[in-house]
Design a protein that fits this description.
Blueprint (H helix, E strand, L loop, with lengths): L1 H19 L10 H26 L10 H11 L21 H4 L1 H24 L2 H22 L5
Helix pairs in contact: 2-3, 3-5, 5-6
């Protein structure tokens, strides 16, 4: 009897908690929220690349088993990068250059290349060939740098 009351109470709590969550599906984001989101995605990409570099350089051998996690993180974070820069999100505290919005075809080409390189790195990591992993990581790093050169303000 008591457990039935507990189940009912928990069910009511769960429904109330779900109803209190903000509606995500179908909602339009504010430009400031999109800018913050993309900044967080790019920071995550940088953090994963830094973690991969540290592992590949042998600085943190105890975390070698996390290489795949970081590679998949970059893979996910580089999918459809232009969608992170919709029209009307070219203001505020951003490191993105105007060329992101003025040269959409060039930006898409660079970001697609980065996404393909991230896919290749994740595949190489899954395959376990150390030389292939190093090569794919260098290619991905070069692709990131090329995109930053044309579409991101220089870091101070």
């Amino acid at each position: 009897m008591r457990s039935s009351k507990n189940k009912k109470a928990w069910s009511c709590f769960a429904v109330a908690a779900l109803l209190s969550l903000p509606v995500v599906a179908g909602a339009e984001s504010e430009p400031e929220d999109i800018i913050k989101y993309r900044q967080n995605v790019m920071k995550a990409n940088g953090a994963n690349m830094g973690a991969i570099a540290a592992i590949l350089q042998g600085k943190v051998p105890e975390y070698k088993d996390r290489l795949g996690d970081h590679a998949r993180g970059v893979q996910a974070g580089t999918k459809n990068i232009p969608a992170l820069f919709p029209d009307g999100s070219d203001f505020g505290d951003t490191e993105a250059l105007e060329s992101v919005w003025k040269d959409r075809a060039g930006f898409k080409k660079r970001s697609d290349d980065t996404s393909k390189k991230a896919d290749a790195l994740a595949k190489a990591v899954a395959g376990g060939d150390a030389k292939a992993i190093q090569a794919r990581f260098r290619e991905l790093s070069d692709s990131c740098k090329a995109c930053h050169k044309d579409f991101r303000k220089e870091q101070q």
